Fold Dehydrogenase.
Amino acid sequence: MTDPARRYRLHLESQRRQSPAFHFDETVWQTACERHPGLAQRIDVSFGWDGERFLRPLDDVDFLLASRFPHAVVNDAPRLRWIHTTGAGVDQLMPLERLRSDLILTNSSGIHSDKAAEFAQMALLMLNSQMPRVLQAQREHRWEPRLTTPIRGKTALVIGFGDLGMAAARAAHAAGLRVIGLNRSGSASGATDAAHVLAPVDALDEWLPQADFVIVTAPLTPATRNLLSAQRLARMRPGAGIINMSRAALIDYAALFERLRSGACSGAILDVFDPEPLPDDNAAWDVPGLVVTPHISCDAPDYSVRVLELWFGNFARLLRGEPLMNVVSLARGY
């Protein structure tokens, strides 16, 4: 337990270039405080934009909530003990080993699950109906009927089985698909209802040829970068479709685009790119069979409120001396 009279300083950092849904300003903070008035009384809050606060030492900050920050600045902050990131992925903060070893880093995993499930199910149904090809024909003013079999009984391979992957898996399961989940260990707590088979990602080459749909939800780490290489894409079942809800660097997009152009891959729905926003001259815009979505698969208009709801829950745990939720392993990168 902590001193009940102690107050803490929280700094909320936002970026103006992002959608207002991702801004942490006075209005959003007050909304969150109304839900947690007792906890809010223990907090003195400051607001920052575009990293300007990081130009000065964080001498008075106990907790930081931000998507990005300079490692040297947080390492030199004498009172700082806990950093919460606004997203689930922390690849933008790597290498995490450069962070001070006593800093606790938590992420916002779990707040995306409802939207992720809806997006995954929509994308699966679109791919099964070959809607990317239908939309391509529409743009080219071609009447091209495509008759497809029902989705029930087909196989979805979900690569990455954290909160995001489990949400996608449950959506696939609800649509009647056989779900194969892959993660680092081949096991997961609370996932028994989400996948028919759960296997280690080392078995990816074995499962790729069996999948009608591949859903990528794994975090980006050095181990997962280029996980779906050109060689692995070539192992996919002819006519299979692919969905990426994670990070662009997990897939060799150039090789995927070639497979889409040749028809070896029936369709793809990609929600993540590098860079973002996607430049208007990027080749992805014109790849046949590809639907480009602008990083919207997991986010909602009340995103910042969801983040603060999670943060307040963890603040309550900290005050009670309990372990925090969503602690990121600095070694594994998630």
